[in-house]
Amino acid sequence: MSRKLFLGLILSISLLFVLAACGGNGGNESSGEGSEGDSSEGSDSGSDQSISFTAKSELPSMDPSLITDSVAFQWAGETYEGLYRLDENGELAEGVAKDHEVSEDGTTWTFNLREDAQWENGDPVTAHDFVYAWQRAVTPDTGSEYGPYFLGGVVKNASAIAEGEMKPEELGVKAVDDYTFEVNLEQPVPYFDSMTVFITFMPLNKSYVEEQGDSFSTEADNTLANGPFKMTEWKHGEGWKVVKNENYWDADTVELQEIDVKVIKETSTAVNLFQSGELDQAELNAEFVDEYRSSEHFEVVENPYLYFFKFNQENEVLSNADARKAMSMAIDRKSLTDVILNDGSVPANGYVPSNFVTVPGSDGKDFREVQGPLVGHDVEKAKEHWDKALEALGKDSVTLELMGDDTDSSQNAMAYYKEQLETNLEGLSVKVVEVPFKERVRRDQEGEFEIEAATWGPDYADANTYLNMYLTDGQNNNMNYSSEEYDSLINKANTELAQKPEKRYETFMEAERLLIEEDAAVAPLYQDAKSQLLRSNIEGVFPTATGPNFEFKWASVK
To answer: Which keywords has UniProt assigned to this entry (predicted)?
Structure first.
């Protein structure tokens, strides 16, 4: 997400996210007759396999090594292809890799690559492209956030390289030959193949990247695709266009010829453009859901994206656990999802979302079902914790800053948070600060916030993608939370228990209880779903959990 993260298209597509997340079918189901004024006419481009979609923010970058937001995840995920993709059932589908083998000790993964994969300029995609890209992602001079985060502690020597202690050439990756890619891990990682779907693991054409220099992936003309689509137009602040990549190895499967993406922050504008036939998709907020619920174009897309409060414990008030617990308990999550959002989202009662991963040895039970609720709305207890916090702090009133996105749906939620906190916690004043998505991401990375209305989408299909965020000094911590006990539990789950799945998940659950119930380091608020209008003659567009928010490879206009 994933700074995932909805999100983006879904986060922003948190916008736009970023954030979003694995499996599920976003197929279009007719729910009745269209509402008054609902146009069922498709856009003029529909008949020639061209569609138009919305995004709620600009693309910060299309460089796979530098991308941290879900908007770029979405569109780089369509123009690049790694070892695997995800199909509509959330299962791994062939990408550049045809298959792979894993050594008995679980530390050596050998990927057999197809020989017909090409870059859009005709160059072959080889194992050397993966070696270069992964080395580049952990090289300090690159400035990648996710390279050290995802490869560190996973691929051999990645952490030491990221810290400048070893050379990039010592990373545990090797091109055995042009079409055999070998990866050596620090320790067994049972979900490693799922990780390779993430954008940081995409290949890069070394000669092209070095030829472009600092201009690489900053304009459409400076991008080079090996995926189903390629970028041909990028009007900063307005939108971009991707078209079918005829040199893609599976081009015969790709029916769409063009996707025109327009940056539109206001829901009303997007709906008007959909109604006039200028857009084929428009995300809805609460104001429009009831009006269009009966439209044949209406659908709800569920995602394992979590929205939550991040508490920066550098702040004196937020360093107090009772203050954090009080703010978490003060929010009525059901009213938030049912009234304010009204888009299919559901209250979150833990940090690992529901319908995301099953617990080993539980007969297929969902993580949330086995763990049970860890947080909820309780005004009386909230007041008790708040009074205790104020007494410990020697204060009778405090002012805290709450930072969030500047989209209209986010603004509604932010106003609700302010009302709930100030009404239920006497003496608390909340100053709402709404910033563009790109600026929120920057402030998050720099720790420049007090409370952040944040979001996270999974980067691979394992509970660790949520729970390892809060290791001491972790790259996605950024809020000064530190717990030796928590660190120990997460490290234990990923080392000595790596090949003992049942005990590993028992340890994850213990860690989540510590994070949410005892420390209230973050406050889960709701699990995302998006209501949208999608032209009913568009088929095969579906959400994924750990790749792009939506997958277009198999889409078509009927």
So the answer is: Signal, Transport
Contacts of 472 (CB under 8 A, 6+ apart): 481, 482, 483, 484, 487
- Integer-rounded Cα radius of gyration of the chain: 23
Q: By three-state DSSP, how is residue 539 classified?
A: strand
How far apart are the C-alpha atoms of 384 and 363, rounded to whole Å?
A: 40
Q: Looking at this protein, which amino acid is placed at residue 98?
A: K
Specify the DSSP element, H or E, that contains 401.
strand 398-405
Residue type, 90: G
> If you ran DSSP here, which 8-state letter would residue 42 be given?
P
Beta strand residue intervals within 114-265, DSSP E: 173-177, 180-184, 229-235, 239-244, 258-263
Using alpha carbons, select from 197, 183, 105 the residue that is nearest to residue 498.
105
Report in angstroms the alpha-carbon separations of 254 from 99, 191, 362, 437, 536. Answer: 22, 28, 39, 31, 19
Which secondary-structure segment (H or E) carries 100?
Answer: strand 97-102
> Are the beta carbons of 20 and 64 closer than 8 angstroms?
no
125-164 burial, b at 16+ Cβ within 10 Å, e below that, comes to bbbbbbbbbbbbbbbeebebbbbbbbbbbbbbbbbebbee
Encoding tokens for residue 210?
């070095």
Tokens 């050594």 locate to 103
- In this predicted structure, what is the pLDDT of residue 418? 98
- Give dist(CA 163, CA 167) in Å, integer: 10
Per-residue model confidence (pLDDT) at position 507 = 98
Length of the chain as a residue count? 558
Structure token digits, residue 556: 């078509």
Say if residue 380 is exposed, middle or buried (CB neighbours under 10 Å; 0-12, 13-18, 19+).
Answer: exposed
Q: What is the pTM of this model?
A: 0.74
Angle at 470 between CA 464 and CA 476, to 5 degrees: 95
Q: Which residues, given as ranges, of the chain have pLDDT below 70?
A: 1-47
DSSP string over 193-232: HHHTTSGGG----HHHHHHHGGGTTSSGGG----SSEEEE
* pLDDT tens, position by position, 385-420: 999 999 999 999 999 999 999 887 789 999 999 999
